[in-house]
Specification:
By secondary structure, this protein is of the alpha/beta class. The chain folds into 2 domains: 4-255 and 471-486, Glycogen Phosphorylase B (Rossmann fold, 3-Layer(aba) Sandwich); 279-465, Glycogen Phosphorylase B (Rossmann fold), CATH 3.40.50. The protein is built from 18 helices and 18 strands. The chain has a 9-stranded mixed beta sheet, with helices on both faces. A 6-stranded parallel beta sheet has the order 15-14-13-16-17-18, sandwiched between helices. α4 (112-127) packs across α5. The longest helix is centred in the first third of the chain and has 16 residues, at 112-127. The chain starts with a strand and ends with a helix. The relative contact order is 0.10. The structure holds adenosine-5'-diphosphate and alpha-D-glucopyranose. Adenosine-5'-diphosphate is lined by residues 19-21, 23, 307-309, 336-338, 364-366, 369, 388-391.
């Protein structure tokens, strides 16, 4: 039997991206198709989504819902890999300026609960026959935006619809989609769902909790994060529920789409290079990056790169405290990011204090992100917590050694250049244990020390580039989760 899966999510690369969620939703379905699964995606009809799909055609009229006017279901194809994408067409909800979640002034849209309830509801409608030509066996919801999908499935089942299995994937427990209890009435769910044994969370409606409570299985994006979220320290208030579901939780590490993130095929970098011979190609990328960012053009300066959302999660305040340690040792730092105004200002101040050594670009720039991953010697991901993290995986592929905090997916994917790891041929980067200045500075010093040992440095770069985090392993692991729901 061909397993049919419907992914419900808010973002999908290359249509629309604000973070790693988009990369995952862009890469997992084609990897699943390779294994024979019929994997499709449902997205809100944001303008960029509509513009990026080919062969868009109407599928069904879903009637009026959530005050969005008349909602239509459309279906298109995402080229080149040919994944079928359903679109929730509700222009009053989705045809707006700004990013998917916030207006142009960075304020969350006041009706986000209804905008994303519509996504979960539509996923459940597709699962119960809205497209006469196709029905999934499994609805696979990603993050809080799609968290109500398992709740609607349960509600429809109660009204006589057949059971459709669901999987909830947590990409980040810090974003929960909580809304005032007074909004519950607008969600078209049975009244008793607003309960502790349901989607109520400390007097609010929680979309993420709905997904965690009503889904048949829960996955998250690394084995370490799967353990962490079941502890009080990292459970963001949901550890109690997660502990009761411990046997339904699986940590599945994200992968890398090497057709996009490989220095040997990357059209957006200054010079392509391979793992067999990174040398001059990588140096050209570094020189081009230094030039583009206004840094001193010096191949010997150890260049640290950051590509990141500028939020508390990412630990960049700690990095800011260590900037003098990088610069005093002759290193350079380049940062691409956007987010919290305080962090944006901190970055700009650092650049102003160290002209030629620290350069910052505020904004979201896909092409520059590739240039930084390729042109840096070190890519820093000092996150307080990190469910998986993709930039350190991209860094490995480009031979730019990741420097990370030992947490979540970072702990699962990077091996420190300690003496014993160097001796045993295991090192792929730099890992620090304690989230404080001493921790990060220790790792920075290790990076300078390794750079001074040319042979060891080259060996670590080679090992980093040889790591395989392709999507096939994850696709197989998800297939196993689905199999557990559908039976042999
Ligand atoms: P998160 O999803 O928490 O932001 P990940 O490491 O999983 O972190 O994924 C981040 C993704 O977003 C990567 O593809 C990274 O390159 C990209 N990214 C983050 N910030 C920017 C930016 N300012 N410009 C371009 N790409 C960015
Ligand atoms: C989230 C997490 C990040 C993860 C990404 C994709 O945004 O913060 O760690 O890699 O989702 O799963």
């Amino acid at each position: 039997m061909t397993v049919c899966v419907l992914h419900a999510a808010a973002e999908m690369f290359p249509l629309l991206k604000t973070g790693g969620l988009a990369d995952v939703v862009g890469a997992l379905p084609p990897a699943q198709s390779q294994l024979g699964t019929d994997a499709r995606v449902v997205l809100p009809g944001f303008p960029a989504v509509l513009a990026g799909l080919a062969d868009l055609e109407p599928v069904a009229d879903l009637g009026g819902a959530f005050g969005a006017g008349n909602v239509r279901l459309e279906r298109g194809v995402l080229k080149p890999h040919g994944v079928t994408v359903y679109v929730v067409r509700a222009d009053p909800f989705y045809d707006r300026p700004g990013n998917p979640y916030m207006d142009a002034a960075n304020h969350p849209y006041a009706d986000n609960d209804r905008r994303f309830a519509l996504l979960g509801w539509t996923a459940a409608r597709i699962a119960t026959g809205a497209d006469p030509a196709w029905k999934p066996h499994i609805v696979h919801a990603h993050d809080w935006h799609a968290g109500l999908a398992p709740a609607y499935l349960r509600a429809f089942e109660r009204s006589g619809a057949p059971h459709v299995a669901s999987v909830m994937t947590v990409h980040n427990l810090a974003y929960q989609g909580t809304f005032p209890a007074s909004e519950f009435g607008a969600l078209q769910l049975p009244g008793d769902f607003y309960a502790m044994e349901g989607l109520e969370f400390y007097g609010h409606v929680s979309f993420l909790k709905a997904g965690l409570y009503y889904a048949d299985r829960i996955t998250t994006v690394s084995p370490t994060y799967a353990r962490e979220i079941q502890t009080q320290a990292h459970g963001a208030g949901l550890h109690g529920l997660l502990q009761t579901r411990t046997h339904d939780i699986t940590g599945i590490l994200n992968g890398v789409d090497y057709s996009i993130w490989s220095p040997s095929v990357d059209e957006s970098i200054a010079s392509k290079y391979t793992a067999a011979k990174p040398g001059s190609g990588k140096s050209k990328c570094k020189a081009a990056l230094q030039e583009r960012m206004g840094l001193a053009k010096d191949d010997d300066a150890l260049l640290f790169g950051v590509v990141s959302r500028l939020t508390e999660q990412k630990g960049l305040d700690l990095l800011l405290s260590a900037v003098p340690d990088i610069v005093q040792r002759g290193g350079q730092l380049v940062v691409l990011g956007t987010g919290d105004p305080a962090l944006e200002t901190g970055m700009k101040n650092a650049a102003a204090a160290h002209p030629g050594a620290v350069a910052v670009e505020l904004g979201f720039d896909e092409t520059l992100s590739h240039s930084i991953i390729a042109g840096s010697d070190i890519v820093m991901v000092p996150s307080r917590f990190e469910p998986c993290g993709l930039t350190q995986l991209y860094a490995l592929a480009y031979g730019s050694l990741p420097l990370v905090h030992r947490v979540g997916g970072l702990a699962d994917t990077v091996a420190d250049s300690s003496l014993e790891n160097l001796a045993d041929d295991l090192a792929t980067g730099f890992v620090f244990d304690t989230f404080d200045r001493a921790g990060i500075v220790g790792a920075i010093r290790r990076a300078f020390a390794l750079k001074a040992r040319r042979t060891d440095w080259k060996a670590v770069v080679k090992r980093a580039m040889g790591q395989n985090f392709g999507w096939e392993a994850a696709a197989l692991a998800y297939a196993e989760v689905y199999q557990g729901l559908l039976g042999p």
